[in-house]
Design brief:
The protein is of the alpha+beta class. The chain is globular, with a radius of gyration of 14 Å. The mean pLDDT is 86. A six-stranded antiparallel sheet has the order 1-2-5-4-3-6, covered by helices on one side. Strand 4 and strand 5 form a beta hairpin.
């Protein structure tokens, strides 16, 4: 089902989950079973997921809603623009959010692919 993910979502998920963390490894195994159920209407690209939980195991995260992965958006000039957050609910990928740290800068998931700096 990975092919059905829009390129911006697939690229950003791959980048923020690209660590040696066992939690991120479990979340990467969920990605082929994800589809986008909805997108934010403001145009930022935030994506809300649909996942067949019978196909994969949950990641070992805290119960409830958790930020399981995050990355700052930093330009080549070192300007911090915002961040991307991957949320889980009950250990399953739930949504991918992009946000700007300034009202003067529009940040989208498509643009975020170029500025990602995953947090370790």
């Amino acid at each position: 089902m990975t092919e059905s993910l829009p390129a911006d979502v697939a690229d950003v998920l791959a980048a923020v989950l690209n660590t040696g963390s066992p939690v991120h490894a479990a979340l990467r195994r969920q990605v082929p079973h994800l589809s986008v159920r909805a997108r934010c209407t403001c145009g930022c690209g935030t994506a809300y997921f649909e996942l067949d939980t019978s196909e994969v195991e949950p990641a070992l995260t805290a119960p409830g809603t958790v930020v399981a992965a995050e990355a700052q958006l930093v330009t080549e000039a070192g300007e911090y623009l915002g961040e991307v957050l991957a949320f889980t609910q009950g250990g399953y990928l739930s949504w991918l959010e992009v946000c700007s740290w300034s009202d003067d800068i529009e940040v989208t998931l498509a643009a975020a692919r170029h500025w990602l700096q995953p947090r370790s």
